[in-house]
Amino acid sequence: MKKQVCMFVWNHFTNDARVLRECTALSDSDFAVDLICIDDPNNTGLPQYEERNPNFKIYRVKRYPDLLLFIQKMYRLIYKYKTLGIMTLLIWVLLAFIIPSIIILLSIFLILLLKTKCRVIWIRGSIIFRMVGRGFIKDYDIYHSNDLNTLPQGFICSKIRLKKRKLIYDSHEVQTSRTGYDSPVYGYLEAFLIKRVEAMIVENNTRAKYNQELYGFYPYVVHNYPVKKNGQSGEKAPIRELFGLPKDEKILLYQGGIQTGRGLENLIKAAPLFKEGTLVLIGSGKIKDELQKMVDQMNLHHKVKFIPKVPIVDLPKYTRNAYIGFQVLNNVCFNHYSASSNKLFEYMMSGVPVVACSFPEIKRVVEGEGTGLCIDSHDPLSIAKGVNYILNYPEEYQRMQKNCIAARERYNWDIEKNQFLSVYETVIKSNKQPNQ
Hints:
Layout: E1 3-8, H1 17-27, E2 31-38, E3 49-53, E4 56-61, H2 66-80, H3 82-98, H4 100-115, H5 118-135, E5 142-146, H6 151-159, E6 166-170, H7 185-193, E7 199-202, H8 205-215, E8 220-221, H9 239-243, E9 251-255, H10 264-270, E10 278-282, H11 288-298, E11 304-307, H12 315-319, E12 322-327, H13 334-337, H14 342-349, E13 354-357, H15 360-369, E14 372-375, H16 380-392, H17 394-407, H18 413-429
Parallel strand pairs: 1-2, 1-5, 2-4, 5-6, 6-7, 7-8, 9-10, 9-12, 10-11, 12-13, 13-14
Antiparallel strand pairs: 3-4
């Protein structure tokens, strides 16, 4: 009989390649997986329940509390229809004279919910509550939490019960040194919960060593390699046609999140120095508008193009257009400095040489396998020099291309998934908690 796995992830599960690979590997083996993620109210076509195969099912919990949705709906109606707003205000004032204490408390409650961080706390708390509720519905053998924001859910479901279950913590990021995670609370939370898991998984050995220094044990390492595409069709998305570019125009590609700390400002500053080619950025994120304004101010519309985020299954069609791929993270935190970077291997899988930052895990692959050049990602001039070197020496480019094709035989999920499955085998066989 297959072991039952409950996996948590704090996203909509539309573009999470790593979690998809892990769930698929488990469901193709001796496990049945229920993945609990979050609904996206803005995507009406996204089902709350999916069955990818008989052993892999997806449950999306509601993002927003019903009461909050009702309050927001009423607030918008009052704001839109002035007469209704005036009547509501008069009634509210009248009630304030009749039951002042209750109305004052209600007023404070509404202000806190609509205008402060209490709204965010309420929303996140509601998601956690629903995830935990879903996690208790079936009698699972193993719980699997992806990243710190689902570790409390895994802990509650696996340990706050009469018969405890096993818990795996799969940390895709360095939670104690990560952009947007500045509060020491994250470190305290992880330090408390990590002692109560049966196994921890990290992305590479640099992060594993960091974890050992921090918590005293060396976690399992499962690299974030893409699936090897056997017999690739070679189909390409029409990027050049989209922008009216010549058929032989070289596409210099960045794909991924348009976020702070990824060196994208420096990449755009370097673009005017590129000997040839068009810089194309595929993805979405918080600083996309800022980067587009930067392109406007620098008058680089002819040199820099943007494409919205594309479905993960279609991404290789875009990647295959690239002459050069970029991974130019900045050293703004240890999470970035220690990254292996999935996109590095996605470029490799499509035979695309890279210009990349010289951080340890990335440098180990790029220089070790000869799949591109490492540069100073904080310096636009250094980025441009790397690009122009590859453009100037076609024989070097061809060598890098061949190295990419050879390296993808080693850096792929078809091989790495065996290491992932071995973690589960070890956890199942273990009668104790090795990470305590």
